[in-house]
Write a structure and sequence with these properties.
Elements lengths: L2 E2 L5 E11 L3 E11 L5 E3 L1 H11 L9 E4 L5 H12 L5 H29 L2 H18 L12
Parallel strand pairs: 3-5
Antiparallel strand pairs: 1-2, 2-3, 3-4
Length: about 150
């Protein structure tokens, strides 16, 4: 989960707070950030979900603060992995990310099974969407070369 910046330096994955139209503060947004030139870019896998949230009809003109981790499964798992990581090595962080992803997927699969037993099609579709969010970002972790930031 790294990217080369236009300046030639490596961009690290971070969770940042974004402010939209000076009213909405969105915490825990996964971004690539360059420590050299201070440029940052949204993680491409979450960009559409963030834009969908910002354009949703429920967005009120009053000031709000929300955690993107409450909206997006990938952001949730990354927040938990960064929050609970206490080691020094990149391999330990990578292992922690994989563990948190696996735990979340297992929990969602259990919920899916329960929703299926109840015959709740809406809940099943919601859980499928959450699993899709996780599957897209989990595929990036094994290829990580150790460029994470807390």
């Amino acid at each position: 989960m790294f990217k080369t910046c236009d300046c030639g330096q490596m961009m690290k994955l971070e969770l940042r707070k974004l402010i939209h139209e000076r009213k909405t503060r969105i915490c825990h947004v996964p971004v690539y950030a360059c420590q050299a030139c201070k440029k940052y870019e949204l993680l491409p896998l979450i960009k559409s979900e963030l834009l969908r949230y910002l354009s949703s009809p429920g967005q009120e003109p009053r000031r709000t603060r929300v955690s993107f981790a409450d909206i997006n499964e990938s952001a949730y798992v990354l927040r938990e992995a960064f929050r609970t990581y206490e080691g020094d090595s990149v391999a330990e962080l990578q292992a922690r990310c994989m563990k948190v992803f696996d735990e979340r997927v297992n929990m969602l699969l259990d919920l899916f099974s329960y929703a299926q037993n109840l015959g709740d099609d809406d809940w099943m579709r919601q859980i499928e969407g959450r699993l899709e969010q996780l599957s897209s970002i989990k595929s990036l972790i094994p290829e990580n070369s150790g460029n994470y930031s807390r």
